[in-house]
């Protein structure tokens, strides 16, 4: 395989539909909530050079895009996906690392954050220097939280006044510490236990 990771160009717009379908299918298979994207939205991210794509000789292999909030005070990476044919190769970590470095270059004064239910994503974030934080340390921009409306867990988020959900908030502050080495080592057992506790509390009937 000859997989390259690059910032998106006009020639990549044709992958927008496949990217959306791959993201949605992955969420269905995992049984997790997801904020749905449209091909038009993905293309806008490509046009603004706020997206990266992984290609294997022209075949779609992976994708991720950047969103900025509060006039660039916060940025988040969203839509991280690897095509099923390229999973278990460490590609997700390579894409995440690429978009992480790219976002620090494009938005040098921004705090980088994310919310996720995926332990694999938490592990990657932790390796990059993110730390788990309460939602109060993330952006207060209502348009960010409005993006969760299509997630199956949105009612939980609303009931908690955007302060808590099944997702875990993670934050990287470039003014706090260098990227390497991370000072918050990932403990999969602790975070998995936290995830199970949240599910028991929020999904109980």
Automatic annotation (TrEMBL):
Keyword Zinc belongs to the record: no
Name the InterPro entries on file. Answer: Acyl_CoA_acyltransferase, GNAT_dom
Q: Please verify whether the record's keywords include Endoplasmic reticulum.
A: no
What keywords were assigned to this record? Transferase
**Coiled-coil regions in this chain?**
none
Check the record and name the SUPFAM superfamilies matching this protein: Acyl-CoA N-acyltransferases (Nat)
Q: Which GO terms describe its molecular function?
A: acyltransferase activity, transferring groups other than amino-acyl groups
Cross-referenced Gene3D superfamilies, in alphabetical order? Answer: 3.40.630.30
Per UniProt, what is one Pfam family of this protein?
A: Acetyltransf_1
Q: Which residues form the N-acetyltransferase domain?
A: 1-151
Query: What is this protein's record name?
Result: GNAT family N-acetyltransferase
- Please name the source species: Flavobacterium petrolei
The opening ranks of the lineage are: Bacteria, Pseudomonadati, Bacteroidota, Flavobacteriia, Flavobacteriales
């Amino acid at each position: 395989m000859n997989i390259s990771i690059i910032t998106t160009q006009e020639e990549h717009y044709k992958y927008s539909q496949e990217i959306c379908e791959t993201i949605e299918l992955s969420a269905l298979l995992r049984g997790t909530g997801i904020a749905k994207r449209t091909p038009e939205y993905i293309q806008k991210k490509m046009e603004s050079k706020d997206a990266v794509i992984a290609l294997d000789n022209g075949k779609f292999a992976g994708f991720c895009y950047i969103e900025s909030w509060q006039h660039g005070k916060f940025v988040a990476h969203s839509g991280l996906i690897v095509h099923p044919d390229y999973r278990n190769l460490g590609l997700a970590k390579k894409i995440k690392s690429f978009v992480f470095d790219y976002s620090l270059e494009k938005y040098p004064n921004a705090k980088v954050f994310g919310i996720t239910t995926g332990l694999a994503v938490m592990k990657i974030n932790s390796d990059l220097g993110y730390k788990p934080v309460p939602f109060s340390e993330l952006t207060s921009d209502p348009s960010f939280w409005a993006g969760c409306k299509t997630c199956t867990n949105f009612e939980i988020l609303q009931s908690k006044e955007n302060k808590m959900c099944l997702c875990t908030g993670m934050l990287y502050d470039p003014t706090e510490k260098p990227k390497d080495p991370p000072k918050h080592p990932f403990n999969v057992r602790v975070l998995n236990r936290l995830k199970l506790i949240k599910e028991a509390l929020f999904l109980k009937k």
